[in-house]
Amino acid sequence: MNQDKKYKNISYRTVAGYLAGMVGGLICGLCGCTQAKEFEAAGTAMGTIIHQKIYGTQDITSEIEDEIVRLETQLLSRREEASEISRINEYAGQAEGLILSEELSDILTEIWGISKESGGALDITVGPVVTLWNIDTYALMDEGFTVPTEQELTEALRLTGYDKVCIQQDKLFLPEGMSLDLGAVGKGIACDRICKILEASPEVTGAVISVGGSVVTYGEKPDGTSWIVGIQNPRVTDGTGNYVGKLKLSGNWFVSTSGDYERYVEKDGIRYHHIMNPMTGYPAKSDVVSVTILSKEGILSDALSTACFVLGKEEGFALAKRYGAEILTVDENGKIDMSEGMKQYFQP
Ligand code: AMP
Ligand code: MG
Question: How far is it, in rounded angstroms, from Cα 256 to Cα 242?
Answer without folding.
Answer: 17
